[in-house]
Predict the 3D structure of the following.
Amino acid sequence: MGERSMEIKVALASSDGISVDEHFGRAARFLIYRLHNGDWELLETRENDPACSGHQHADHLLEQSAALIADCRGVAVAQIGPTAFDLLVGKCIYPLVLAIPVQDALSAFRKSKFINRVRT
């Protein structure tokens, strides 16, 4: 039985395109990658209006951030608060909290059972 061809998208909160280094609520942009036939491809960078600035936090902007990456199966972030975590999981976007290089985060997504399971 051969491996099923699968295509998924993931978002990475990165300020420099090299490392996952942004808190979900403070991310000004998300890198969108697509896994297709075993290879990762950078599709685009999506600009975001961060929900957190200083010690203030706007729930409607968390919703906006989640909507921005709604077509993604997962998101890698350096940090995430419980409200944002619950919001993403409720939308079947699985957060991975990993402050690591982008390529290592993509490898973690490739191995994740949550990301790779078939949606029903």
